[in-house]
Design brief:
It contains 10 helices and 33 strands. By secondary structure, the chain is α+β, with helices and mostly antiparallel strands. Helix 6 runs antiparallel to helix 7, helix 7 runs parallel beside helix 10 and helix 9 packs across helix 10.
Length: about 600
């Protein structure tokens, strides 16, 4: 009985220990929210950390909509510490916050659930200001301390403009989409997309870039132009237009791992890409039907203001011979609605389908017709009807008639030509008797081999040296292999041309595809890898400053150094303004890169 009593006491003590341990562990779980700084400039980013202490693993929590900010999840990090023999785990979820307007904001408090319990953080106060944030506090002037508010939408926005809001059916209307950017770094700008139900829109043209003053502020403007026309009458909406890009937000006050500061600051400038969608407002368009009054029977839907020019040739033909009509239509309007002009009458003619060719502001039709009767004296009048948008009326452009001379078709007589034939004589050479008779020998004579002795065969003699040659080659290959393993610097120099060749081929492919950003990334990679292998340097940390310092002792041509600096500068600039690099400039960069590689390959160690 005493044993069972002691066992019961031990169970109670163990149960109490488990309850106390669970309570202790529950108290060890904490949730905190923090930011890397409490004051940030508009157009810069800051980092929000959500940290759970006493937790080893859990799903990344989602954030609610935060007033004044856009957020993006960037990853997590875990840590473990041992203090006085006690193990403590924590996991931190990292979010990137992009402010979209100025002012003072409160983040949180954030409440998250974990294993049935709710954990709440303390609120965080943030201030978003216009302009660069000073490292040291400064006294504000009355003008600076005012209540003027700024919004990210005032610094980057999209505008859609149409030539007119009321148009006729099939009438061409110009459409312009403009991206305005004020003192922001933007890259990876994509062509805008827009809704156009009931509207047929052409492809966007190559964008134009310029500067424009609006509201007293200077904006960099990227303009996309196109045209559209209504395909049925009614009220329609065009837009809103949406454009995707990456906003290069400055990471103020953030530190990188040791040894990486100079590299990333040189080539990334302390910026981080943040995906951004920019939208415009929509436009209302009214498409009017064409009037029925005064509509010609031969009208085929042409919209605009056009002229007609017709030439005919030849003017003298026989009945059944072809005559070519070249009809040229010039003017302004929707050339998609321009069809081949009509011939007033086709009696006595055989008509073929026209061939069409269109250029800027001109559409050419070449049509072949055949007069079938010698009584025909002229080609009838050519008529082209169109709707003049400026006057709102139907108009006709005419040309001809065109006089021609048609003669009677001559009857052709067929001549039968009999082939000349002659008797063929087969020649047979005279037969000589006795040559096919071989007499039997009664004595065999001396026997000799018809083949040369083996030692006189040159191929056999040279074959004897093959094992020795293979042994020499094997010896050289093994020595080279051992040196490549033992001498890393030699191996890198030896493999440098082969490795850089692949990177140059990648750059050439991106050049053909007209992808400037990928092209300059490939060029930068090629320069890093080649110079690192050539001079036995760490490729990942190569910058133009490091190369300048190292090459001072190498007696390098100053022009070569200058061209190398230009390549580094172009690669750096292309990360933020890839659209500024055209194909000609990319070809020049690739040519400089190839010539630099040839120069360094010929350079003596």
């Amino acid at each position: 009985m005493k044993f069972f009593k002691n066992l019961k006491i031990l169970a109670i003590i163990l149960l109490m220990f488990l309850v106390i341990s669970n309570a202790c562990f529950a108290k060890d779980i904490r949730f905190e929210a923090s930011v890397d700084r409490n004051k940030v400039s508009l157009g810069s980013t800051l980092q929000l950390n959500l940290t759970f202490y006493g937790v080893e693993n859990m799903s990344a929590p989602g954030l609610p909509n935060i007033d004044g900010f856009k957020w993006q999840y960037t990853g997590s990090s875990t840590s473990m510490s041992i203090v006085n023999g006690k193990v403590s785990n924590s996991i931190t979820y990292i979010y990137l916050l992009l402010p979209v307007k100025t002012g003072t904001f409160q983040l949180g408090p954030f409440s998250l659930e974990y294993q049935g319990a709710i954990y709440t953080s303390k609120p965080i106060t943030l201030e978003v200001v216009e302009g660069q944030v000073s490292q040291a506090p400064q006294a504000q002037s009355p003008a600076q301390s005012g209540s003027q508010q700024f919004d990210l939408k005032d610094k980057i926005f999209l505008i859609m403009q149409v030539g007119k809001n009321t148009a006729y059916l099939n009438e061409t209307v110009p459409l312009t989409i403009k991206l305005y950017v004020n003192k922001l770094a933007v890259r990876d700008i994509q062509y805008p997309q827009f809704n156009h139900e009931g509207i047929s829109a052409s492809s966007l043209q190559q964008p134009r870039q310029y500067q424009e003053i609006s509201g007293g502020l200077a904006y960099d403007v990227i303009e996309f132009d196109t045209t559209f026309f209504g395909i049925r009458p009614g009220e329609f909406k065009v837009g809103p237009a949406m454009l995707k890009c990456n906003l290069m937000a400055r990471k103020e006050g953030q530190r990188r791992p040791s040894g990486m500061d100079s590299f990333f600051d040189d080539f990334f400038g302390g910026y981080e890409a943040y995906p951004l969608d920019v939208n415009s407002s929509e436009m209302k368009i009214t498409i009017l039907p064409l009037p029925e009054e005064g509509k010609p029977q031969d009208f085929s839907g042409a919209m605009g203001n056009f002229t007609l020019d017709v030439t005919v040739g030849p003017h003298e033909v026989r009945a059944g011979d072809p005559v070519t009509l070249k009809m040229v239509i010039r003017g302004e309007g929707n050339f998609n609605t321009v069809n081949c002009p009509k011939i007033e009458t086709t009696d006595g003619f055989k008509i073929y389908d026209p061939q069409t060719k269109q250029e800027n502001g001109t559409k050419v039709f070449e049509q072949v017709i055949m007069p079938m009767d010698e009584k025909i004296q002229e080609i009838p009048r050519v008529i082209f009807s169109f709707f003049d948008i400026s006057s709102g009326t139907y108009r006709r452009a005419t040309a001809g008639p065109f006089p021609i001379t048609v003669t009677k078709e001559e009857a052709q007589t067929q001549k039968v030509v009999e082939p000349y034939s002659k008797r063929l004589t087969v020649y047979s050479p005279p037969e000589t008797l006795g040559k096919d008779i071989v007499y039997i020998k009664d004595f065999i004579g001396d026997l000799k081999s018809r083949q040369k002795p083996l030692y006189k065969n040159k191929a056999f003699v040279w074959f004897q040296f093959l094992p020795l040659a293979l042994l020499v080659v094997l010896y050289i290959a093994l020595n080279r292999r051992n040196r490549l393993k033992q001498d890393v610097s030699y191996a890198r120099r030896l493999n440098a041309p082969r490795r850089v060749k692949k990177s140059v081929e990648n750059a050439r492919d991106f050049l053909k595809q007209a992808k400037p950003e990928e092209f300059y990334n490939a060029v930068f990679k090629a320069v890093q890898e080649y110079l690192g292998d050539k001079f036995d340097l760490a490729s990942g940390g190569i910058t133009i400053n490091i190369i300048d310092e190292f090459l001072k002792t190498k007696n390098i041509d100053p022009q070569i150094l200058e061209r190398l600096r230009n390549i580094f500068k172009d690669c750096d600039m292309a990360r933020y303004a890839a659209g500024a690099f055209d194909k000609t400039r990319m070809e020049t960069t690739l040519k400089d890169l190839e010539e630099l590689i040839v120069y360094f390959q010929r350079m003596k160690e």
